[in-house]
Amino acid sequence: MLQSFNEKNRDLLVNINGELIHRDNAGISPFDSSVQGGDAVWEGLRVYDGRVFKLREHLNRLTHSAKALAFESIPSHDELTGEIRRTLEANSMRTDVHIRLTLTRGVKITSGMDPRLNQSGPTLIVLAEHKAPVYDSAVGATGLSLATSSIRRFGPDQMDPKIHHNNLIQSIMAKIEANAAGADDAVMLDQRGFLAETNATHVFVVTGGKVETSRCVACPEGVTRSTVLDLCAGHGIPCAECDISMAEVYRADECFTTGTMGEIAWVGSVDGRTIGEGAIGPMSRRLRELFRELTRTQGEAIV
Asked: Where is the domain boundary, 130, 165, 195?
């Protein structure tokens, strides 16, 4: 699954530390920590009819990640929201928009990994694009196809997944394997061999009417993931966070993924094995409809 270029994005204005710059002229210093070592945190946000869905939850996670990485200076929620608003207004954006919000440790006085070389404060990047949910074109009659990767997700004793950092090499390596296998995305396991997530999304399985997803041992605290669990709790749908083996994935009645960029997308096959009846199941369809109803009615008004 390869995303195509959207002509609406040809003349985007990118916000870098409050300066709005044409995408072709936007640049980050080679001394910036994101360039030097992937030393940055990020969030993906989605805009529906002028409202950013779960904005506070995303900004909380960004702040928590920056604190865990010992950033000395972190913009307030109000400052971040203000720059998001400026960026959307400058690009005349209102709906079907995805925002990648990045906060780096900032520019170093000289090359090196020591955070003490960062003496000018963080770098904030707000990149807003016209982008519908990315799996919409891929999820048709067959659903998403996943292939298990040989790349394992780190646990909290190696690199705590609760830090939503910019170093995505694990995910990129897994995605390379998925591409080579002809799959849409890669399933990634934790160090014990249990399901963690895909290279880009969280994974849910449905068996006997019960919705299950992996514990946040080797996957981040997903905002869309939490929303789905809340929907289950609020609508009397049995759900659980637990260890899930690949045998349980293969024999599940349904499988779907969750994420801000792709919302809820049903999975038709994993490792070449058809999941359930090979069609979107009733639970996946119901949760997708409940989620879309939330996005139609909730969110923080920005533009």
From this structure: 130
